[in-house]
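tool=predict chain=A
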Amino acid sequence: MSSFKINRRVTEENDIDITSFMNLMIVLVPVLLLSLTFTKIRVLDINLPELSGGASAAELSQSQLEVVVDKSGFAVYFPTGKLLKKIPQTEEGYDYRALSMLMRDLKDQVSDKKDATIIADKKVNYQALISTMDAIKSYKTVLAASMVEVELFPEISLGDKKR
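tool=predict ok
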C-alpha cells in the first residue's frame, strides 16, 4: 500500500468589511426617524343616520340638529325643518367662528343632545366639510391657565343635500 500525503493549505479567515453598510445605517436611521415626526394621522368618527321606523324615529326627527352646508354658507335647523339661523359666507370663506358660537348657545339649551347631521352640497370641498365637523364637534377654551377642548355635538352624521 502506498501512502498518500495530502498537503492542506492553511487558509486565513478574512474579516467581513461592513463599513459601507454601517455608513448606510448612519444616514438611513436618522432620516427615517425625522420623517416619522412629520407624519400625522387623524381619525374622525362619523355615524350613518339610522333607518329605523316607528315612534322612536318620529321622536328623534323632532329633536334632530341639521347643519346644511352649501355655497351660500350655513343653515342650522333645530328641530328638523325649523330654521334656527342662517350664517352667510363671508369674503374670507365660511364663518366657522359664528357656527361654533351658535353651537355653543344651542348646547346650553339642550345639554343632553350629542348628535348632529351635516347635510352638504356636492360642490362643498373636503376641507370645508372637515372644518365644519370640527366647529360642530367641539371648541377650545382656556380653563385654569390651560387650553381645553369642550365637547359640543361629537356624534356627527353626514348626508347629501337634495336638489
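The first helix runs from residue 19 to 37. Residues 117 and 157 are 5 Å apart (CA to CA).
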